[in-house]
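During the no-cost extension, the postdoctoral fellow (Dr. R.K.) reprocessed legacy sequence entries with the updated structure-token encoder. One reprocessed record is reproduced below for audit purposes.
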Amino acid sequence: MSIDSGMVVYETRELISKFFNLGNPLQLCFTKNATEALNIALKGILGPNTHVITTSMEHNSVLRPLKYLEKYHGVEITIVWGNSIGEIDPDSIKQCIKSNTTLIVATLSSNVNGTVLPIEEFGRISKEYGILFLLDAAQGAGSINIDVKKMDIDLLAFPGHKGLMGPQGTGGLYIREGIKINPLLHGGTGSNSKILYQPEMMPDLLESGTLNLPGIVGLNKGIDFINSIGLSNLKCYKQMLFERFYEGVTEIKRIRVYSHIGKEKNSGILAINIGDYDSSEIVDILNKQYGIAARGGFHCAPLAHETLGTGVHGIVRFSLGCFNTIEEIDYTIKALRKISYGIYKKNRA
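Re-encoded structure tokens follow.
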């Protein structure tokens, strides 16, 4: 049973390796989520007197480890700010490079409004200047094609439970061969058990403790599902739903939209607000009166909201998936129209 389990784990490494074009499957370590993967990468590479460049569209899973490293380990941080919809100019990244710049870390797509960042350009810049590039693919893996070799990605962090269709408690970190990284954890790996020091070979270096075998099996099946339908087919279907939703919502008075409509510029999120109402209040109405699941608030990305100008009321975020239907899109548009009109009547009273 133990051998069979090990085979399933390795098969999943191979499946993920092909999905992201990683090359050697052993350069992938499994984690419990993208947050753990990002912490391993950031704390394993950055040290005193190093400089890192990131963006204002990052999740706290990037920002908080960086602020920790800044406060306690002397890491210097430069944050490149996006425009009013969160777009980042690659030249702004280039202009921030210093002699001690060690890493560029960026999200594939904003978890707040879906804006896709110019990852290939970031990768090209990092390669040109001999800087490592870490991609946070939490928002977009499984929806946007990721090729680490073509995009010059040195480190890739991803969760299993979002676009990859796996269960919660799964994720991974890819590290290009030749990169030296210090492990976040030390412990049992099931290999070299007589040695008192952490094995230096991958993935053992970064995989201390028992792996989440049931979760890894579920992640395997999730990626298999994506491959069976085709990533491009799933993307086309989601884009059709998104365009229908976008067009319907933009016709409603008092609604402001913070997301791109372009299929190459959005990962499948529609972010809105209705007048000056708090986003959490709108989400509560959607849930209780219409049975629609959306998310309000600040989405663990404070600088993104500062970038978008939504730092007071937050944003109402709709995340579209391949299991949504046209009927659900039309129903949600009608619900938003009723809510907007109800707010208008209330304000007039």
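The beta strands are 28-31, 51-55, 76-80, 101-107, 132-136, 155-159, 171-175, 255-257, 269-274, 316-319. The mean pLDDT is 96. The remaining legacy entries will be reprocessed before the final report is submitted.
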